[in-house]
Specification:
Chain lengths: 269, 268
């Protein structure tokens, strides 16, 4: 990890050479409760600077998925404020929300591809962030530039040779990389990944994480990912944020913590 | 660690639980109604005694089937099948948008979904012969009325199953598409329809079987097809011709059902 990369996460939010220093994510006093259930978020504050890589960790049910889903309103936020890429997400109407979502690449734990379709068509679907109509529905009808860009995205995840293969013939790791390629098709400014390594074997999981981290650096995009693998959290991030009790309970530069310390974070209650 | 649960001494339950007065009255009422219906609407023993030999008589007069007008009959059968195909095609094509409007999570508005579901229910509950009668009045005698009746009947069936097939598709790809800013139509066309396709094809094949069965009787009410030939043959007491017609209908229906069943097994 480069020194400049580490500077980006300086606690005072130092201006970085790559970004404007503006917070990509700025969360204030966020609370959330599902129905009459317990408070999943209880006054959470979090700032994430442009171009940084942040790992979010925490025990099962601490609200990691809920937090990152609220950022793009896949889950409606409860109380508090969320600013994402300079937008107050609560104020957005449907078109504004669509525009904001198109700037954010989201990778899920499951690849969430249409398995009966080819890898290439699934990647072409990513263009729906900026284009609509039949030409964005299938590679068959996609314009030449779109097909070429989709191929390029598949190349970047090392799967150009599988372009015409149906997703249900690919391995879990390959499918997840196709999902990353679809996300690249969006040309996102911010990449959010919810346990992209969770359903994969150690090697495939590491490949997917490495691909995500490398692509985010290349694109100068911000990366926020959730992982239960402490070695991934440390290796692929610059900053580790631990959730507990509905708030940020740990916030450390990644090079300052060891796996053993992180394990202790899970043990004290 | 685990407490051993001591078995409790239990006594045998009675064979019949005591009925409460309401369910007793209901059961009794239903039974009475069934018996009443049998005595008023069902055939009497005397009618059965007279009717069964008559059936035998008709069957014997049908034999041997008269093959003299077989070319005309086969041509009429072919036209009947075309009616089924045309009605099915129209019905299935319209069932896709109607199914989308009726599907939870895809319909633009709950009110639209309710309206679409009600329309489908009306299409389904009114029998095809009644639709045929309505269309004979609306567009006149002949196959167009039959095609329209089949289309409506197919929609009552297919739109509902299309909606269910689409509702049952994996929510993951849909969420992924809406998370990247796709619009609803894009989500339906790229994530929902491709995933629902095998099930929709199976439904369509079943509709074709259903439409074929319907097409052969629609002629009875003047909505085109071979049914009218059958009616004429019976009216003229040409039982041997009727036998031929019934046999070719049987062959068509069995052929379509077998082919459809085989194709469906291949898809699923
Ligand atoms: N849609 C929902 N309806 C009701 N409760 C929910 C919903 N989504 C999440 N929850 C609850 O909110 C809490 C936080 O869930 P969340 O999925 O965000 O946790 P997580 O940190 O991502 O856990 P994991 O590590 O298992 O992925 C859990 O108690 C969960 O049961
Ligand atoms: Mg989660």
């Amino acid at each position: 990890m480069s020194v400049t990369a580490l500077e980006k996460i300086a606690p005072d939010g130092a201006v970085t050479p790559t970004g404007t220093g503006a917070a990509v994510v700025s969360v204030r006093g966020l609370s959330k409760q599902f129905g009459a259930g317990p408070m999943v978020m209880a006054g959470l504050d979090l700032d994430i600077q442009h171009g940084s890589k942040v790992a979010i960790i925490g025990a099962n049910g601490t609200g990691k998925s809920t937090l990152i889903r609220m950022l793009v309103r896949l889950v409606e936020p409860g109380g508090g404020d969320i600013r994402l890429l300079g937008e107050d997400i609560r104020r957005l109407g449907a078109p504004g929300l669509k525009r904001l979502r198109s700037r954010v690449g989201f990778v899920f734990q499951r690849h969430n591809l249409v398995t009966r379709l080819s890898a290439l068509t699934n990647v072409v679907h990513g263009v729906q962030s900026r284009m609509s109509g039949p030409r964005s529905w299938t590679q068959l009808l996609a314009p030449r530039e779109v097909r070429a860009e989709a191929m390029h995205c598949l190349e970047r995840v090392g799967l150009a040779d599988k372009a015409m293969a149906r997703v249900d013939t690919l391995s879990g790791g390959q499918s997840q990389r196709v999902a990353v390629a679809r996300m690249l098709m969006q040309r996102p400014e911010l990449v959010i990944a919810d346990e992209p390594d969770a359903s994969l074997d150690p090697k495939s999981g590491e490949e997917v994480m490495a691909t995500l981290a490398a692509l985010a650096s290349e694109q100068n995009a911000t990366l926020i990912f959730v992982s239960h693998r402490m070695e991934h959290a440390i290796r692929f991030s610059e900053r580790i944020v631990g959730l507990g009790g509905g708030r940020v309970a740990l916030d450390q530069p990644s090079h300052m913590v060891s796996e053993a310390e992180l394990m202790r974070f899970f043990h004290h209650d | 660690m685990i407490d051993v649960i001591k078995p409790k001494v239990s006594h045998l339950p009675p064979r019949i639980e005591r009925m409460n007065p309401i369910s007793f009255t209901l059961t009794f009422g239903v039974a009475a109604f069934v018996i009443w219906s049998l005595t008023t609407a069902g055939p009497s023993v005397e009618q059965l005694a007279r009717g069964l030999p008559n059936i035998g008589n008709i069957l014997s007069r049908m034999f041997p089937p008269d093959l003299e007008r077989i070319d005309r009959i086969l041509w009429s059968l072919f036209q009947t099948f075309q009616m089924a195909i045309a009605g099915c095609a129209i019905g299935l094509i319209l069932s896709v948008p109607l199914g989308i409007l009726a599907a939870e999570g895809l319909s633009p508005h709950p009110a639209i979904r309710t309206a679409a579901r009600s329309l489908i229910a009306v299409f389904r509950t009114v029998p095809d012969l009644v639709w045929a009668l309505i269309f004979v009045i609306a567009v006149g005698l002949g196959s167009p009325a039959g095609v329209l009746a089949i289309a409506i009947d197919v929609m009552g069936f297919a739109a509902r199953f299309f909606a269910e097939a689409m509702e049952e598709t994996d929510k993951g790809p849909r969420e992924a598409l809406s998370a990247l800013g796709a619009n609803k139509l894009g989500m339906i066309m790229s994530a929902v329809l491709p995933a629902a396709l095998p099930s929709m094809i199976a439904t369509s094949l079943y509709c074709l079987e259903k439409a074929t069965r319907a097409s052969v009787v629609l002629g009875l009410v003047g909505a085109g097809g071979i049914g009218v030939e059958l009616k004429v043959a019976f009216d003229l007491f040409a039982y041997q011709t009727a036998a031929t017609i019934i046999l070719v209908i049987l062959m068509l229906v069995i052929a379509v059902e077998q082919t459809g069943g085989w194709l469906r097994r291949k898809i699923i």
